[in-house]
Amino acid sequence: MIHISELFSSIQGEGLLAGRRQIFVRLTECNLDCCYCDTEFGRTEIGRVESRPGSADLINIPQPMPLHAITDIIAEWQALLPGAHHSVSFTGGEPLLYADLLARLFPDIRRIIPIHLETNGTMHLALGQVKRHLDYISMDMKLPSTAGCTGQLWDLHALFLREAQGCNVSVKVVVGDVTEQHEIFKVCEIIARINIDTPLFLQPLTLPDGTIGIKAAHLLHLQELASGRLPDVRVIPQMHKLLGAL
Ligand code: SF4
User: Fold this and answer.
1) Tens-digit pLDDT profile for residues 119-161
2) Does ligand 1 come within 6 angstroms of the Cβ of 39?
C-alpha cells in the first residue's frame, strides 16, 4: 500500500522532458522544506485521481492504495490514449522516501511505459534501491538563495549525482534575483567533477503571485557563468504554469 496525493495526466513543464505529455504520480511527504514550495504533499486519507486523463476532473480515492491499483490506472490510460504519454513521472514531495515500495512497483510499470523520477537529489542510498528501474532522473540542486531554509546540501547533491551515473540524469536549479554567482559556480563544480556532460537547467523562480522572480539581465548573467563551465546549459521556465495545466 502507498499514499499518493495526486495521479493525473499533463504536460511536463520542467527540465529535459519539458513539453512531453506524462502521467504524473505525486507521492506524499518530503524531507525538505523549501521556501518556494508550491506543492501540497502532506499525507491525507484522500488522494485525487483524474477521472479521465487530461480532464482535470479529480475524484477522491481513499489512501493508502494498493500498488497494483496504480499500475492498473496507468495501463488503462495507455490503452485509452495509445501513444499519448511519453512516460510516467513520479514526483512529490520526495518520492524516494518510498524507495522500498517503488522498487516493487516500478518493474510492473516499466513494462507499460518508461519511468521518470523527479527528486530533490538528497537521498542517494534510496536512489540505489530503484535506479535500475529508471529511464530518466531529474534532480534538483537546492540553492540556499532560493530554497532558503534547506541549508547547505552540496555534499548530499554530489553523492546523489554520483549514484545517478548510468541513468539519464539532468540537474535543475531554481534561480532568482537573490541567486549569487558563487552558488552557480558550486553547482557547476559538482557537475563538472562527476560528469561534465550532465544537462543543467536554470529554472526562473515563480513567485506566489505567478510572476517570475528574476530579471532577464540577471538570468542571462547566470546563464553566461554556467555556460562558461558546462557544455549543456538551458533556461526553461515552468511551462505547465504558463499553460494553466495541472
Ligand atoms: S523538495 Fe520539492 S516538494 Fe520538497 S519542500 Fe522542496 S520544493 Fe517542496
Assistant:
1) 999 999 999 999 999 999 999 999 999 998 667 899 999 999 9
2) yes
Positions of the chain with pLDDT lower than 70, given as ranges? 149-150
Residue 122's pLDDT is 97
Fold of 4-243: TIM Barrel (3.20.20)
Tell me, what's the pLDDT at 160?
98
Is the CB of 92 inside a 6 Å radius of any atom of ligand 1? yes
144 pocket-lining for ligand 1 (C-beta < 6 Å):
no
Ligand 1 atom with the smallest distance to the CA of 120 is 1
Is residue 36 within 8 A of residue 20, CB to CB? The reply is no
What ranges do the domains of the chain cover? 4-243
Closest residue to atom 8 of ligand 1, CA basis: 37
For atom 5 of ligand 1, which residue has the closest CA?
33
Cβ-contact 110, 87 below 8 angstroms: no
Angle at 141 between CA 140 and CA 145, to 5 degrees: 120
Q: What is the rounded CA–CA span in Å between residue 232 and residue 162?
A: 18
pLDDT tens figures, 33-48: 998 898 877 788 999 9
pTM of the model: 0.96
- For residues 244 and 246, give the distance between their C-alpha atoms in angstroms, rounded to a whole number: 7
Of 155, 129, 157, 163, the closest CA to residue 141 belongs to 157
Query: What is the three-class DSSP state of 170?
Result: strand
